[in-house]
Predict the structure.
Amino acid sequence: MSGFDIDNVALLARLRLEGAERERLGKDLETIIRYIDQLDQLDTARVEPTSHVIPIQNVLREDEETRPFASSDYLNMAPSEKRNHYEVPKII
Amino acid sequence: MKYETVIGLEVHTQMKTRTKIFCACSTEFGRTANENTCPICLGMPGVLPVLNKRALELAVRACLATHCTINPLSRFDRKNYFYPDLPKGYQISQFSLPIGEYGHIDLPANGNSRRIGLRRIHMEEDAGKLIHGENLGQPDKSYVDFNRTGIPLIEIVSEPDLRSPEEARDYLNRLKSILQYAGVSDCDMEKGSLRCDANISLRPVGQKEFGIRTELKNLNSFKFVQKAIEIEVQRQTRILDQGDRVVQETRLYDADRNETFSMRSKEEAHDYRYFPEPDLVPVVVEATWLEEIRRSIPELPDQKRERFVRDYQIPEYDAEVLTSSRALADYYEQSVSLGAGAKTASNWIMGELLRELNNDERDIESCPVAPAALAEMVQLVENGTLSGKMAKTVFEEMYRTGKPAKQIVADQGLIQISDRTAIEKMIDEIIAANPGQTEEYRAGKVKLMAFFVGQTMKASKGKANPQIVNEVLKEKLG
């Protein structure tokens, strides 16, 4: 893969990478992508695209409500909550 | 220079299910924040989303009702982006194999219909709702409610076939009515169950290539859609007239200032990195099920309009207005089946009834005059008990008080005088009392007829049957 840009990936993932960490992760990811890119050498012109690894389809559920836990169970796990809302840094 | 406006709309609508698209949480509106959540829609590690059968069925209905081809195999993809309203870090959507494609909607316009192409319809999950800063808590925080996360949506993408802001609004009205008829969605904009984005560009009249477009986001009422597009067209016209280029970008509409403004800054280069969703298996709509769904779709607006013209012998225009919503069409059919004449009922509904409802900003569903009550009143007009003018008074009273027509007629002594002898007697007296006018009329001043009609109506307190009054006057004045 040409033009791999660790900074762009970090931006899309909302991660701040600096110094040695940026260097190390950039190298790791490049190695991973080179490894995956070996697949490009195969001729897949006559291979059906795989939508799913297991050959099954139409796993559906009925439109029926269940409630496994109370909402407070999840809110209590959050680092910060207010009036039943999850509190996060201001995003606008 | 003269430009042609080119508009494509993307409509997100909530499908009418009891539970979310991939989990068993309720979709009920107006619950406490985060009450309708579970590990699946909160994106906890290790959970497995499973497609709601009803949601799939409704998506197929929407496709069939808009003449889309159902893809033999459809699947879900992950659309990756990070935002706090999306707990998984991706939205489950459909990218390369949507449920339906290549549909159309016909917009009736003064007898000629315009066909608007639909590029695709795909299923996806909604994101959560963000409340910013001091609206709920501290100014430097945002607050997330995940009740909407995982609400089943379809996105309906039109071809860039729309040519004016009014046409865009007509398209939305049509689409809304089709989705409501087919039972896919309530399309209630106030509850967020219908949202619209618009792609807008201009090109010199006669040019084939499209101009550079902007995308207007989150237009949350039909009125705003039209206004926002109008204002954006004006903005782009000014730019092009100055010889400048339109910048391709996403813009938001500010209804208070009636202007659009740029939403995103330069770093927002979208890269959703779609890939097939490994947690969900492909969807194949089997032929037998497809046929079952097809048969379950009720009569749609176009079919109903044609049937109204054919069976009730009413004009195309009447049929168009009456079938604009399923509820209104049902109201009309009930009134007629309860004895109202087809055309008379249509006139009353399109005239007085819709005018009153519009004044009150009410829907036909909450109309204080029931179809049976309207039918009774229409019959009183048709059998001559009430004149058209008296009926208007009666109708206003019915609308205001909810009382039946017969009771109002009895209370106010409103029965029309159709007794010929009684009317003749009145007219004899009027002629006797106005010898001067009578002479002038007989000498050729026929305009005085209005005077005599007026006198008769006055004498009868407006109750004399106007047709008989005219007949008798012509006879006697001769």
User: Anything to note?
Assistant: The mean pLDDT of chain A is 88. Chain A touches chain B at residues 8, 11-14, 50-54, 56-69, 71, 74-75, 82-92 (CB under 8 Å). Chain A has three helices and three strands.
